[in-house]
Specification:
Blueprint (H helix, E strand, L loop, with lengths): L7 H11 L4 H18 L12 H6 L5
Helix pairs in contact: 1-2
Length: 63
């Protein structure tokens, strides 16, 4: 399966199946909130990244 964004409906299904106290349910709800927040800020920066893997490993940052 390919990557897909967690949405509120999927997080709710997980919560009902696993319960409120389950760690996976909490992470799913957090992911749904993050994805919802990213959609509200616009999708123009969707494919860009802040820095390459080598930049992050060396502590450098592109500016």
């Amino acid at each position: 399966m390919g990557k897909s964004k967690m949405d509120d409906a999927a997080a709710e299904r997980i919560r009902r199946a696993r319960g409120d106290k389950d760690g996976f349910s909490k992470r799913a709800a957090d992911a749904a909130r993050r994805n919802d927040g990213q959609d509200q800020h616009g999708s123009s920066s969707k494919g860009s990244s802040v820095g390459s893997k080598s930049d992050r490993e060396s502590g450098g940052e592109k500016k």
